[in-house]
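Lay summary. Proteins are chains of building blocks that fold into shapes, and those shapes determine what they do. In this project we predict the shape from the chain. Here is one chain we studied, written as its sequence of building blocks.
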Amino acid sequence: MKLKLFTFLISALFMIPVGVFAHGTEEEHQREMLTATLLNYSFIVSSILLGLGIILFFLIRNQLKTVNVKKQEGRLKRDKLQRWLKLSRWVSVLALLALAVSGVFALTNGTGEEEDIDFMHIHGLGFTNDGTEIYVPAHDGLKVYKNGKWKIPEGEKHDYMGFSMVDNGFYSSGHPAPGSSMKNPLGVVKSTDMGKTLQTLDLYGEVDFHGIGVGYYSHAIYVLTPEPNSRMDDAGLYYSLDETKTWTKSDMKGLEGQPSAITVHPEKENIVVISTNRGVYLSKDYGNSFNNILEGTPVTSVSFTKEGKLLAGGMTDKPSLMEINLESGEKKNIPIPTLSEDDAIGYIAVNPNNEKQIVFTTFEKDIYLTDNFGEKWIQIAKQGKGMNSQTTTNE
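And here is the predicted shape, written in a compact code that computers can read:
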């Protein structure tokens, strides 16, 4: 009976229907998080059970040597101990099997080789300050594209959300990697060594911000919070100019529609842009008032260049990419590869050392890169799989 119960528990550990726990607008994301968490816990539980099983086996075997089988009482005790010995063997075998299965899943979660780069989700995009590397935060940690190849950098594989690259690293929020000692959620964190280590700034263990924008050089931090927390009395837009020591709530007058992305001017901490399903909203007074500078166009992504020009990924009859000069109001279309009718631009980044080099991701987890302002694009990821550079012809 005990053996059957144990077998059932081990089997159930790998057969839990994760989907029943997920709900809401981020069902897929939560399902993948739960899957990773369950695999991590199964690895830990299996390791503990294997250790207990081995210890139990040797303790029982040693105790059997001391049993006097000449007496009826001793023989009954021997039979009982032998049943426990058999159970300890099965515990060890099943725990070892479970450990092997969870270990295989963990090892296949990306080995650093190009063909193994997968993106469960994409939560941001950015160039390093020298312009040589592109960082892509995914559900299972950072991925880096450099010289035509993908790699996995050092550091824990945190589930970064609201990822914002700056001149000396990045700011982010999200959830810690399976097995990490960090609290969940991360609150607002910062890294100056590209994810090798994280500095916790605020709301650690309390909030997971999906909407974060940080000035590339100013490091002015803007966050969209969906509900109150210990530092913010109401839902809405807040900003900090002192590394989260203080927060100020913005009035957000004139902003309409459902926010989809947020970006902050690289140098001018007072300028913030939020895109919605009704256009692109620009504020020059710390988010207190907004004006729609691309009215009538649903916009899925926005990003500033080093010089302060704005790139916007929009959706009219098809996905599009546009550069907007905030000083003159001039708008310039940038040719992009043909995307499927259900796809759209998710994130955009511009090389700080080369305005003509642009990279963008899509909802379907494709990633495209151009070195010449859209004249020619190469595809560096397809449906969540990192790939060799392949030329894509604009249509």
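What the prediction tells us: The first strand starts at residue 126 and ends at 127.
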